[in-house]
From TrEMBL:
The keyword Mitochondrion does not apply. It comes from Roseovarius bejariae. Residues 533-847 form the Peptidase M1 alanyl aminopeptidase C-terminal domain. GO terms for biological process: proteolysis. Belongs to the peptidase M1 family. Residues 218-432 form the Peptidase M1 membrane alanine aminopeptidase domain. SUPFAM superfamilies: Leukotriene A4 hydrolase N-terminal domain, Metalloproteases ('zincins'), catalytic domain. Residues 26-179 form the Aminopeptidase N-like N-terminal domain. This is Aminopeptidase N.
Amino acid sequence: MKDASPQTIYLSDYTPPAFLVEEVHLTFRLNPKKTRVISKIRFKPNPASKSRDFFLHGEGLRLVSARVDGQAVEPELTDEGLTCAVPDAPFVWEAEVEIDPQGNTALEGLYMSNGMYCTQCEAEGFRKITYYPDRPDVMGVFTVRIEGDEKVLLSNGNLVAKGDGFAEWHDPWPKPAYLFALVAGDLVNHPDRFTTRSGREVELNIWVRPGDEGKCAFGMEALKKSMAWDEKTYGREYDLDVFNVVAVDDFNMGAMENKGLNIFNSSCVLASQETSTDANFERIEAIIAHEYFHNWTGNRITCRDWFQLCLKEGLTVFRDSEFTADMRSAPVKRISDVIALRARQFREDNGPLAHPVRPESFVEINNFYTATVYEKGAEVIGMLKRLVGDAAYAKAVDLYFERHDGQACTIEDWLKVFEDATGRDLSQFKRWYSQAGTPRLRVTDDFKDGTYTLHFEQETPPTPGQDEKAPQVIPIAVGLLGPNGDEVVETRFLEMTEAKQSFTFEGLGARPVPSILRDFSAPVILERETDNAERAFLLAHDTDPFNKWEAGRDLARDGLIEMIVNGAAPDDAYLDAALTMARDDTLDPAFRALALGLPSQDELAQTLHERGHTPDPQAIWDALETLRHARAEHFQDLAPRLYAQYQVAKPYAPDAEQSGARALANAALGMITRLDGGAQAGRQYDSADNMTQQLAAFSNLLQAGQGQDAVTRFYDQWKEDRLVIDKWFMLQIVHAAPEDAAKTTEALTQHPDFTIRNPNRFRSVLGALAMNPAGFHHAGGEGYRVLADWLIALDPLNPQTAARMCSAFETWKRYDRERQAMIADQLDRILATKDLSPDTTEMVSRIRN
Ligand code: PHE
Ligand code: ZN
């Protein structure tokens, strides 16, 4: 099957590089339209390769001159790079190329954003800067000279020289080209310092455009906390004299871990009380940590090839989630992560884009920066840690750093350190990396003579290219509660390895109530026949916060499914249990706010589909509206009490405690608004001194259909702040009534502040449409057409972002014939577009099949 598409790349085809790089010297003569890049690279033949074919990647470069060992050469140029005759011995390659940063709208390679130069090289952007073996298993020591008039000239590593119109940087750590970075602009910095535990003095800077200085303090604190945490928890110290972070407005992704020079989407680093919500602050703290943690998991130890992406991403996501759990509330973090995992990764795993955590083939690697690689990749590491225990995990990870520092590694290397450190055989566990799809875990139980037995059956449905699945190792955390609500068996880990397996608990006085998959101990779908009484019991008594939350969530979800499928009324069992839970002031307000969250429209559509129904987006929306209204009435007395009780009196701080209080108060506001039509929200809007309160009020007003005035006021107040205006665009679309969503989106694309060039703005409008499922899937199909129109328009400018956003269509086979036909038409229209990028072609073809 290797000829499906000529450009498909297979893991099984990996071969080592023919030549290795020892040293790289780069000189940049910056110019917006004609930047010169002069490279001098020392190569040597790779003893591990039989090939002596010299090939350098290069795309969109104008080659000015090339030399081998000082002699001019004329390499053979192709669309993908060049080949050239070279000695079978170490040699020096020199080249001069010209590139056009200003014309670079794809935001890969060297480009300009608001007058500043910046780079994005992961995964394969360096080849747009100069000719180079642009693959992660080629690691070199870089020295970079930047010539330009900008006040600030930055690259990786330590500054070695600086003068009028130039700066020179040297990075002593060998690295792959994807970690290269350069920034030049009239930037200002927010400086600080950190002393590592062995006494290295590190200069820290966050570089921003003038005007954004006031939004750096929080990110800086997060950076210092991350540095201290990685020393304490993983024994990892920083290894350069300076750590620079730069905020860039035009960026395809969240942030990038370039060695010593992290580049951030400004939305993922800039924060202030007035402009950022509590959720923004928490996310920024996590992303700062994530990129910083990459310094060891990703940079010091990198990936052999892009199929191993989860080696750095899964591990780094796992590490940043541990960090957030330590800095804030561990249960709240776990619950939020599972909500996101189900919304994004389960959705991916159950549709046409399903792929293993370590994919086996791709056309465009940019299409594989997915929830599966990142979030499921992190879950797999969490399971590994559960299976071997905390001490063995620490030992194995130490061994990983010791054995592989400076190397480009594979998942095999990663698993081997666990095998060597623990003596365990992980060959079956490895299936988590190779089998796609979310396992279903069916449970039944019985009780006889004091013995309680849990019977498990696992099954993973077929996914594209994988019809048959073998049983996986599933760590199942179980606790048992007695009839009075006491825990009679504390959390135990059951290690399931067979397709069917039973586990017994002896010496019980009465039939217990099981609490299964505590802390969401494995990324599976648990299926168990149970009733409302048991769920209400678990919501009231479970000692495991995750399962306590899950019990309430299941109650809400199944009640909603009954409403949607059978036209049932809102479920009293849910309403009563939710009221009891919300009233319990011994519970963390953040937990209560999460427990008052209802399943999303998309999660309900997914559940309906899993249970053999065809989801009707309008019916889902109606059911949620009905339930929200019934709940508001049920909470008529409690909601105002919670609202008043959880107003924060202290000066604003985006910490876990205050955020939790505000989240609960705002959940109460949502209920109040259902009954008062927006009066309270209006008062909150007027008095808010922070974006969390202002935005919650704004959302409620929009939701209640009372937002017109606020739309104008919000815009007038914030029109100079791009990040806040992104929220303004997004909320109007997310809260539009289903029948208006496509119209509202189209109208907002005509707003003078809309631009197709800025990925954040594009996503805040077109991405928002997909975040309003009843609107996106509204019966006329306008939503599909609007999104397709704009993806077609974006593709030639920025294929990476266009391709990613195609995933809005990935669930199309869930829906009815009419909708499927309309979506198929749009997918075909996109595919038929002349010169469609390989990125978007790959995504749409996979979705369409
Ligand atoms: N490696 C980045 C991260 O996870 C993500 C990224 C990928 C950014 C590709 C840009 C381009 O932190
Ligand atoms: Zn990452």
